[in-house]
Specification:
The protein is α/β, with parallel strands linked by helices. It contains twelve helices and 13 strands. Strand 12 and strand 13 form a beta hairpin. It binds oxa(dethia)-CoA. Oxa(dethia)-CoA binds next to helix 2, helix 6, helix 9 and strand 12.
Length: 329
């Protein structure tokens, strides 16, 4: 049996960082940010005692509440993140402890902006194989922890947030996650979007701090070009492999990095604007959080019905990218 989503949830921290706020910090302006990215504001987790595991814990608790199951019913927790609370233990183990899922095993998966789609794909295999019946998959990033707020090329783009789902065997054949296509291209991507400090190559030293190596670096223009091509290609591939016309697609749920990338993907698919999910204006790019936050909002707005066809697509550091076709049950 295929894996189906049986609950969705999201958590966005309450504090807002608006384009106007950024104007006071950097040489930038609201008009530039909105016209080049579509972003108006983003959320920032300001409490120094809280980090990615906190946001995931909030999502986890909500998921259990919505699905009306106990924490002990969860068999596996996968957290997609590139901003774990710490290098180890995994954020997934911290989340297991927060929600009290004593019977689960738990691990992190890092595929940057494609993390949630990679994790959803991995989780679906445990359901399809019959190994597990209830898996929690959360995508979350606290991007404010790795942003240099004096660098206008990245500071304007990212925000903090988390979203997640519970996956279970679909009740009927023909529903759930029906197709997945995942890609990586380290040769092209490894130098374009990265954080060099704090890992085994450049462990933290005074020098790495002075050189700002604990912040995100992005070659925005190159990443933009690659993202437009890869997201459109994988969306097209998912449609043709599954004989989906633009009319058949109820929602395109794209990674939320830049409204111009979202528009280019939708255009290539021939999908009308009202079917394209976008909240990048309100949250910016929350990396692994974007797609599950979109799913949670669609669900809250009661837009998902039995038989709704969803195409999810992402692109991010690595490079990593992918697409998933799912039929809502
Ligand atoms: O999540 C997956 C990974 N990330 C992405 O998908 C992001 C991909 N990249 C992008 O979204 C875009 O490349 C950016 C939004 C980062 C930049 O947009 P762009 O249209 O590619 O601008 P640009 O980097 O080519 O810069 C154009 C101009 C430059 O000035 P000059 O050289 O033309 O005089 C920049 O210095 O805009 C300037 N600029 C800014 N001006 C005001 C760059 N950042 C800013 C800023 N405010 N924040």
């Amino acid at each position: 049996m295929k894996a189906a989503i049986t609950a969705t949830a999201k958590y966005l921290p309450p504090d807002i960082l608006s384009n106007r706020d950024l104007e006071l910090m950097l040489e930038t302006n609201d008009e530039w940010i909105r016209s080049r990215t579509g972003i108006s504001e983003r959320r920032i987790l300001k409490d120094p005692a809280k980090a990615t595991s906190y946001m995931c814990g909030e999502v986890g608790r909500l998921l259990l509440e919505k699905r009306q199951i106990a924490a002990d019913d969860i068999e596996l927790i996968i957290i997609a993140t590139m901003t774990p609370d710490m290098l180890f233990p995994s954020t997934a183990c911290l989340v297991q402890s927060i929600i009290g899922a004593r019977n689960a095993w738990a691990f992190d998966l890092n595929a940057a902006c494609s993390g949630f789609l990679y994790a959803l794909n991995v989780a679906s295999r445990f359901i399809e194989s019959g190994a597990h019946k209830k898996v929690m998959v959360i995508g979350a990033d606290m991007m404010s922890s790795i942003i240099d707020y004096t660098d206008r090329s990245t500071a304007i783009l990212f925000g903090d947030g988390a979203g997640g789902v519970i996956l279970e065997p679909a009740k009927e054949e023909g529903f759930g996650i029906l197709d997945t296509r995942m890609y990586s291209d380290g040769a092209s991507g490894k130098d374009r979007l990265l954080m060099t400090g704090g890992g085994s190559l450049h462990p933290a030293t005074h020098e790495t701090i002075d050189k700002k190596m604990h912040y995100i670096y992005q070659d925005g223009r190159q990443v933009f070009k690659s993202a437009v091509v890869a997201m459109a290609d994988v969306a097209g591939e998912i449609m043709s492999r599954n004989n989906l016309s633009a009319n058949d697609v109820d929602y395109l749920v794209p990674h939320q990095a830049n409204q111009r990338i979202i528009n280019a993907t939708a255009e290539r698919m021939g999908v009308d604007d009202e079917k394209v999910v976008s909240n990048v204006a309100r949250y910016g790019n929350t990396t692994a959080g974007t797609i599950p936050i979109c799913l949670a909002e669609l669900d809250e707005e009661q837009k998902l019905h039995t038989g709704s066809n969803l195409v999810l697509v992402s692109f991010g550091a690595g490079y990593t990218w992918g697409g998933i076709y799912l039929k809502w049950q």
